[in-house]
């Protein structure tokens, strides 16, 4: 991490928080370019809050229902982020669309993970829809957040095969394993400034051997658990 101070990252969740947990675990390494300084859930009993507390990360529930409208809810989130001096926001299973005003404050500094190869399958039930469409390749995407749902310039993607006997559960599991590898890599690209939002594109710089080219692809169809990390080290 080149001796630079670690970027202060907050994670916004609504539920289980497994991606938040992998980000936090990756941040524990001495060479990490970022630290997770806090976790906010918009649901009072989000399971991820317990994972965060167990990892000694400050965790706050700011339930939407405790606020009269979206603007006051987002103002509370914003105040919490400011109090933690957050530099980057990572959405990880945060199930509420943020307002253009909120998003505008974090342009180029807020990323999201979505369980499909965007721009395919925005929204919910991505794995079922990929199966129904007969996709042979599926995956996940980390992108900068814009005011549109599951939109925004792509930082990195991981692809996994769709196998002939897959069902929603097996495909969900395979994509989630890819998400857990992709998100720490993508956040590292953003935290180190090697992936930056320039206009409505992502510009890459000095990727070296650790970030590939921002696109992480699975090996040939057939493997159940793609070795994304070794592929991420591959620089053509
Ligand atoms: C993940 O599949 C993520 O891509 C999507 O919501 C799910 C959240 O899972 N946006 P978790 O809370 O990180 O376990």
Task: Explain the layout of strands and helices.
Elements: E1 7-13, H1 18-27, E2 34-41, H2 47-54, E3 59-61, H3 70-83, E4 88-91, H4 100-105, E5 110-114, H5 126-132, E6 137-144, E7 154-161, H6 168-191, E8 195-198, E9 201-204, E10 215-216, H7 228-232
This protein binds 5-O-phosphono-beta-D-ribofuranosylamine (GRF).
- How confident is the prediction overall: mean pLDDT? 89
| Order of strands, widest sheet | 3-2-1-4-5-6-7-10
Helicity level: 25-40%
Give a list of the ligands: 5-O-phosphono-beta-D-ribofuranosylamine
3D structure, described in words:
Helix 2 links the parallel strand 2 and strand 3. An 8-stranded mixed β-sheet has the order 3-2-1-4-5-6-7-10. Strands 8-9 form a two-stranded antiparallel sheet. It has 7 helices and 10 strands. The radius of gyration is 17 Å and the shape is globular. The longest helix has 24 residues. It is 31% helix and 22% strand. It has 2 domains: 106 residues, Formyl transferase, N-terminal domain (Rossmann fold); 124 residues, Rossmann fold, CATH 3.40.50.170. With 236 residues, it is of the alpha/beta class. Helix 1 runs parallel beside helix 6. The structure holds 5-O-phosphono-beta-D-ribofuranosylamine. The site of 5-O-phosphono-beta-D-ribofuranosylamine has 14 residues, from helix 1, strand 5 and helix 6.
